[in-house]
Amino acid sequence: MNLDVEIRRLLDVMPASGRMITKIISQPEQPTVLAYRPGLPWSQERPVLINFDFWRQLPEPQRDLLILSTVQWLTASKWLKPNLYLGLALAGAVGAIAELVQGDMIGFAVAGGLSALAGTQIRRINRGLQLQLAADEAAVHVAQRRGYSEAEAAQHLFSAIQTVAKLEGQAQPTFDQLIRCQNLRAIAGLSKTSVPETLRE
Q1: 158 and 111 Cβ atoms separated by less than 8 Å
Q2: In three state form, how does the secondary structure of 24-77 look?
Q3: 3-state helix/strand/coil string of the chain
Q4: Closest CA to 165 of 34, 42, 75
Q5: What integer pLDDT is reported at residue 79 of this predicted model?
């Protein structure tokens, strides 16, 4: 596999909105097939790190759907979007610094705890199952503009999730992987059981 050719091909598969922000980087030493970072708030680039030794073992349709799902996640996640949790995290951090300067360890612990809880909630929202399901569904939708049928796209992404788990040596799929696969099986028409709405909230 020629890396430059494959990177150009993957960029062509992406929607224009993803192409503008995504930077694909070869990362042969990483233990995962694909990793991504939300990027710094002042940077427009969102790095996607690919171990091409693993990547070449996936069939092309699986690679297409995997990169589409990743790009959809990157464009949907808003780590520094102004909201209640970001406000609490910042207020807690400022409060913790102020309490530390004053030598009030109880106040420091309370403010630090508030900041940590808010930060955990921000992370859960941006890496949570709800966002992953939405990214998968958006990837299936975009793939239809690339010549895949809805059922084909869902099946390829479902297979890609399973293949990646095997390549990375996972003994058991995670809960999130199981739910994502079930959702994709339902979209592909392979299962009548859809994902409960409570898991999307």
Answers
A1: no
A2: EEECCCCCCCEEECCCCCCCCCEEEEECHHHHCCCCHHHHHHHHHHHHHHHHHC
A3: CCHHHHHHHHHHHCCHHHHHHEEEEECCCCCCCEEECCCCCCCCCEEEEECHHHHCCCCHHHHHHHHHHHHHHHHHCCCCCCCHHHHHHHHHHHHHHHHHHHCCHHHHHHHHHHHHHHHHHHHHHHHCHHHHHHHHHHHHHHHHCCCCCHHHHHHHHHHHHHHHHHHCCCCCCCHHHHHHHHHHHHHHCCCCCCCCHHHHC
A4: 34
A5: 46
Q: How confident is the model over 65-90, as pLDDT tens digits?
A: 999 999 988 876 554 455 565 566 66
Mean pLDDT (the chain) is: 82
Looking at residue 173, its amino acid is P
**Digit-coded pLDDT (tens) for 98-137:** 777 787 778 777 777 777 776 666 566 555 678 888 889 9
Check if the beta carbon of residue 196 is closer than 8 Å to that of residue 130: no
